[in-house]
């Protein structure tokens, strides 16, 4: 059975789909990718579908589910290289990949990925700071500050 290569570049995994995906290959890619995220603690994933000509509802759902699963594992997924025909098909099927960031090519995808990860790291730091401020306020209210 054909396998989709998953390449680690820094803290990012690059999944370059170089063929039209059959259902079983797509499911194997999903399982392999989640395993690689676990093994490498990757923070970002680029899924390049620039040579994919046809997307059906199953593949659209696999991409969407894979991104959601990766998100739960603390990895941001960006899908790059969506061809116009694929975009039209996804919208017609009602699978607009709304929760998945997209970019025209790998270069822009990497830039978007870095921005998203930096934003999330900043948001986590702000949350920690807000929690700390909350504790300080609580201590002050309780007469411990």
Automatic annotation (TrEMBL):
The protein's name: STAS domain-containing protein
Pfam families: STAS (PF01740)
PANTHER family the UniProt entry points to: RSBT ANTAGONIST PROTEIN RSBS, RSBT ANTAGONIST PROTEIN RSBS-RELATED
CDD domains given in the database record: STAS_RsbR_RsbS_like
Species of provenance: Candidatus Manganitrophus noduliformans
Source taxon at top rank: Bacteria
STAS domain segment(s): 1-113
């Amino acid at each position: 059975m054909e396998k989709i290569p998953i390449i680690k570049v820094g803290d990012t995994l690059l999944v370059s789909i170089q063929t039209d995906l059959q259902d079983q290959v797509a499911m194997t890619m999903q399982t392999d990718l989640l395993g690689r995220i676990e093994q490498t603690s990757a923070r970002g994933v680029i899924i390049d579908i620039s040579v994919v000509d046809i997307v059906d509802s199953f593949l659209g759902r696999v991409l969407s589910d894979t991104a959601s699963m990766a998100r739960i594992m603390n990895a941001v997924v960006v899908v790059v290289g969506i061809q116009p025909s694929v975009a039209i098909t996804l919208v017609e099927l009602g699978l607009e990949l709304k929760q998945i960031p997209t970019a025209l090519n790998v270069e822009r995808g990497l830039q978007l990925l870095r921005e998203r990860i930096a934003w999330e790291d900043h948001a986590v730091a702000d949350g920690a700071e807000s929690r700390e401020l909350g504790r300080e306020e609580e201590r002050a209210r309780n007469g411990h500050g």
